[in-house]
Amino acid sequence: MNLVHQKVAIYNNKIKESAELIFESYSDSSENVGLTLVLAELGRYQFQDSDFYKALFGLRALLEPKNIVICINGCRLDFVCSSMGQQMSQGKVGYIIEIGKRATNRARTFDRCDDESKLTTVNKQMDYIRQWSESLKG
To answer: How many CA atoms lie within 13 A of 54 on its CB side?
Structure first.
């Protein structure tokens, strides 16, 4: 197992705090990676999946009912990781997207996002990604 620790900012009920994100890679499991968010007062939240982007979505689904948002690019409304990016980078690299335009602005999924207005829920992000994808078909 391979472990990497990263300090991250979070919003806990709109109050900015610090936390630790732990990246785990497994070689002997169908769920190849895990993400654990360690919060000083609130404990640990963990999710495993086939890549870090998918694991992030699962982790966010656990955190959203508690009004906790991680301040990283992967939680932005306008961030997407392509299926090729998920395979090539284990979901650690994606794109900042804009309706009607092809994705060209590469960004790291777990890099800090300081613009609170860009952070959103999983459902709103998925809706935006669908709208963006549809806008490219026209």
So the answer is: 15
Return the bridge partners of 105, or none: 96
Number of CB atoms found within 10 A of residue 121's CB: 14
C-alpha distances in Å from residue 9, one per residue of 37, 52, 104, 107: 11, 18, 26, 18
Half-sphere exposure of 34 (CA within 13 A, CB side): 18
Kindly report, residue by residue over 40-57, the tens digit of the pLDDT.
Answer: 888 999 999 999 999 999
Q: What is the DSSP letter of 112?
A: B
Q: How far is CA 123 from CA 58, 67, 75, in A?
A: 12, 14, 11
Q: What are the DSSP calls for 44-81, one per residue? A: EEEEEESSHHHHHHHHHHHHGGGTEEE-BGGGBTTEE-
Q: 84-125, pLDDT tens digit by residue?
A: 888 888 999 999 999 999 999 999 999 999 999 999 999 999
In angstroms, rounded to a whole number, what is the distance separating the alpha carbons of residues 105 and 79? Answer: 10
